[in-house]
Amino acid sequence: MRTKEEFNQFFQTGLTGVIKTLDKARRKVLFRLFLTHFLNLILILVFLVFFVVWMEKLDEGELESGSFVIIVIGIVFLALIGLLIYLYYRKRKKYVVEFKTNLINPIIKFIDQGLNYVPDGYISSGAFSASKIFHQPYNRYSGDDLVEGTIDKTKILFSELHVANIVHRDKRTEKHPVFDGMFFIADFNKHFKGQTFVLPDKAEKLFKGLGKFFQSMNWNYGQLVKMENIEFEKEFVVYSNDQIEARYIISLSMMERMLALKKRFNRPVYFSFINSNVNFAVALRGKQLEPTVLRSLDNRKIIDSYFGLLNDMIAIVDELNLNTRIWTKQ
Amino acid sequence: MEIVLIVIAVVLLILVLMYNSLVRKRNMVDQVFASMDAMLKKRFDLIPNLVSSVKEYMKHEAGTLTKITELRTKALSPNISTEDKVVVNNELNKLLGGLKVAFENYPDLKASNNFLQLQASLNEVEEQISAARRTYNAAVNDNNNAVDMFPTNIIAGLFGFKRRTLFEIPESERTNINVGNLFNS
Fold this sequence. Notes:
The structure holds two protein chains of two kinds.
Chain A: H1 4-59, H2 67-111, E1 115-118, H3 125-130, E2 140-151, E3 154-169, E4 172-187, E5 196-200, H4 202-207, H5 209-215, E6 223-225, H6 230-235, E7 236-240, H7 243-249, H8 252-265, E8 269-274, E9 277-283, H9 300-319
Antiparallel strand pairs in A: 1-2, 2-3, 3-4, 4-9, 5-7, 5-8, 6-7, 8-9
Helix pairs in contact in A: 1-2, 2-9
Chain B: H1 2-55, H2 62-76, H3 82-103, H4 107-111, H5 113-148, H6 152-159, H7 171-174, H8 179-184
Helix pairs in contact in B: 1-2, 1-5, 2-3
């Protein structure tokens, strides 16, 4: 975990040059974007003119009927447009790779040398399902920006994930999002056998006292575990198949730590403790750690937001005190 | 006539459900108490090992170590009452807490692998005991609410369901440990 001041220093010495080069590349991509739009527009106009002239000639009887020819010409025009768009995306992708290797990777290495970055890697759907946090079915699973490694004694990995279920109903396609955001897995510092979940408390916020009643009937996750920290109980609901173990994992100080994490992200957060791992999911809007094409990269706010997210994710190890190995698990 | 029968059936059903929920809550208290007992036993089992491994290093703490061994023997004697067990345990907590602070004065001890392993086990058991105690209190709270609150209190009164006493949380667990104070005392 690094402070803002440390990052400022790193920014001055290590990033300004990179950002200048990247922004040049970005401007080239932007130029290509305009060029592609411009050429496509011209192609469409040419085709329309051609089409109108063709129709007139057909009406005047100068030409034999030949819709076959106009279809072939139409396809050629479409192919040209497609090719231009493809070429643009290829260039954009090259820029994204450059952005991730030259900007995101150094930021991660700056936060912790021991971490590895795989730009197009992501947490497997097997690991996502094994966390048992989200029970909805899904058929779309993607992600990127995988970070993995060991911080002191704790193995971690995290990535961005986009999980959804696409349903076709009456010729309509409906998208039911399951999870969008960052997903984090780490080796937990205490031994445990059961399954424990800490989820955002929706029922209690909606129904106040009655919420407890609805919560106690959630069979997906196990028994409701009531905690003694009032603030914690307002934000979260805990389920487990072992009442004592749940409290062993979620000690009094752990509750404070989880609350602090929730406050920092200020978005819905989910935890599960399964197979000696802690899984953490924070729901975020949109795509993370992606370069902008329309806006200049030479903008401190954007760079700070990349650093902020990565630093927050890596700091989870400290926030949850995972490197304190004073129990039998080393 | 039928309506009367239905009403009686529904009332009976509600009574049975309330009775069962009281039984469930009482059993939960007993069950958690048993688990807590098991964890306390686990800690007692660690004590002989701990004492034998630190004895040679901690000559100044010999008195404390003897006291700890005595308390363990007392707690494991078959005819001890639950209340006594709690008292013995609280005393043991205090002594072990003091011993842990004293560990800091023995660098040789802290370099011993065997000792570090033992200390980790002890920390683990203590955290488990603390978890069990919190679980016990939650179960007792549930039970007492049911015994005191309308309408289950009527059934509780009829069938002799009783309130249970909460476990006292030791002072050390209630307040955050202030490292500075450790050195002042």
